[in-house]
């Protein structure tokens, strides 16, 4: 016997998002489009859900958009400085290491260029505070314009999901999560899908279509 | 099966290849009647089945051959399940099915419940007078196809040929030699409701019908 399983644990950030947006629940909101970019920066999926939400651009422009975003994302990820993990035991030793005081220059493009930056000095001085590997830098996540909001979600394997929504759209994180679930189910478990190639899976189209329609009609 | 008996399995622990549990208890040591809590993850099955399809796809010349290979992968499972499921029946109904209808009911109820946790959706006899040897087992959404989207150029293919192979194994094991094939019928009038609807066409050998007629007279 086989049971359906899905590890949909409530994500802490998702929960706060839900709570934070309760008062906006009455606002009419729309998901305009979804783009999936593979880890090499190629466009592998592109679908518009809501006519008239965004202007139509050609397929070629979509390819350029995907490639450009991939590049911008890679650069913004490098801007992200490595944050030292706060260790309670470290406070006693701080006096001997002036370099480990909170760095006012956090956010500078090149932290190693700053003389008192904690990042380059720590591995040689206070071994132990970097025992756990920090999260990889995330890069650009949200881009907002007057008419739409674009949210990017990067999977652990480097595939990017771009969701274009109304600026008032609530719970984009949750929507993104469901889209990723569907991608994992109906694309990755499909024996006829070749990795990194354009997504052409009827089941994915169908399930995604009905899910987004449900959101847009709410 | 004889070459995989429990004695051999334990004695060959030092051989390379298969791994054995450290306590020496293999799957053959387990009681046959453990029916509860015998559930598996659908995701892990989906990935495994996806690899089976990919494996069967290697060096095949056509869809017919691919379905044949999937059928062959399922056949031994059906043969073994017939024995296993009959063993698990209460002692007074432990006999193997003796008529076509009893056999098909066994497949629809026992086999399906064991494999998929529910019964098959319908059982039909061919209405065509030219083919009295054809019966149909209908499943509205086969579990094996849950995440599979067949590409357009292979629209003839139905990966439930694997399940068809299992049915064929059960029929052959019960001395009702038959050919079983899986056909998608979702695109037709009821297609909107059940896009994955599959018919398993069971075509018995002429001698089965001959015997059935004799039993009917007696």
TrEMBL record, chain A:
Where does this protein reside within or beyond the cell? Endoplasmic reticulum; Golgi apparatus, cis-Golgi network; Golgi apparatus
Region annotation Disordered: where it falls in the sequence: 82-138
Which Pfam families does the record cross-reference, listed alphabetically?
A: Sybindin (PF04099)
Q: Which GO terms describe its biological process?
A: endoplasmic reticulum to Golgi vesicle-mediated transport
Predominant location of this chain?
Answer: endoplasmic reticulum
Q: Spans of biased composition, class Low complexity?
A: 84-126
Entry annotated with the keyword Endoplasmic reticulum: yes
Q: Which Gene3D superfamilies match?
A: 3.30.450.70
Q: How does it assemble?
A: Part of the multisubunit transport protein particle (TRAPP) complex.
User: Can you tell me which family this protein belongs to?
Assistant: Belongs to the TRAPP small subunits family. TRAPPC4 subfamily.
Instruction: Write the protein's name.
Output: Trafficking protein particle complex subunit
TrEMBL record, chain B:
Q: Region (Disordered) spans which residues? A: 1-25
Q: Which domain of life is it from?
A: Eukaryota
Q: Which GO CC annotations does the UniProt entry carry?
A: endoplasmic reticulum; TRAPPI protein complex; TRAPPII protein complex; TRAPPIII protein complex
Give the matching InterPro entries: NO_sig/Golgi_transp_ligand-bd, TRAPP-I_su5, TRAPP_component
Q: Name one GO biological process term.
A: endoplasmic reticulum to Golgi vesicle-mediated transport
What's one Pfam family the UniProt record gives for this protein? Answer: TRAPP
* Compartments, record wording: Endoplasmic reticulum; Golgi apparatus, cis-Golgi network
Q: Name the UniProt key words of this record, in alphabetical order.
A: Endoplasmic reticulum, ER-Golgi transport, Golgi apparatus, Transport
Role summary: Plays a key role in the late stages of endoplasmic reticulum to Golgi traffic.
How would you summarize the oligomeric state and partners of this protein?
Part of the multisubunit TRAPP (transport protein particle) complex.
Which PANTHER family does this UniProt record tie to the protein?
41-2 PROTEIN ANTIGEN-RELATED, TRAFFICKING PROTEIN PARTICLE COMPLEX SUBUNIT 5
Its family remark reads: Belongs to the TRAPP small subunits family. BET3 subfamily.
Put simply, this protein is called Trafficking protein particle complex subunit
Q: Which organism is it from?
A: Dichotomopilus funicola
Question: What is the organism lineage in this UniProt record?
Answer: Eukaryota, Fungi, Dikarya, Ascomycota, Pezizomycotina
